[in-house]
Protein: Transglycosylase-like protein with SLT domain
Amino acid sequence: MIRPQLLKSVGARVAAVALLLAGVAGGVQLARHGGDDGPGTASKEAVAAAEQAAIQREAKHAADRAARAESERTAALKASSMAKRAAADARSLEAAQKKATAEKKAAAQRAAQTGPVPYTGTIPAACKTFSGSREIGCALMIKAGFGFGEFSCLNKLWDHESGWNYKATNPGSGAYGIPQAYPGDKMSSAGSDWKISPATQIKWGLGYIKGRYDSPCGAWNHFQNNGSY
Structure:
């Protein structure tokens, strides 16, 4: 016969094992299915984050495209403005050139009547330190074959004779012009505009000097010794 104490001990052990098995089964079930905040929720958050990143990338691309479009628009406006300014400058320059040409033509027409007739020849660089009739005299002297060093003599000679004034007139002798030709109409051999053209008078005077004194310095030396040339 089994003792009551043994049955009681065995029953307690069976109940403990059953309780343990029930706890293990519950844990397995919980691990298998999880709760509402398990992997399913994490997957949704990842998708949302990816979508947000895509939206941000697209927004950045749109902003970049807008910036490029604005930069291109600004560049186009600047280029158009520069083109308009260049066209305006070209028109202004053309107008100024036309005005200068008209003024030069008008001056030439007035000079043809009253003088002085403008000199249209080339002025050597060495002669540009002078102005007016002296500049013309320097240029024509070099063109006639004299060295630049001769101009100091020519300058002193005609400075004394007429002050390089193409209208200079000697009331006593009637000598006329820059070289003080006597009579003045001798200079017509160099040009019909001898009365109002410094260049015509200078050409005649250089020819006279070359024929009689060989050079401006020769004429100046003669003048110093004799008071005339």
Summary: DSSP finds six helices and no strands in the chain. Residues 39-114 form the longest helix (76 residues).
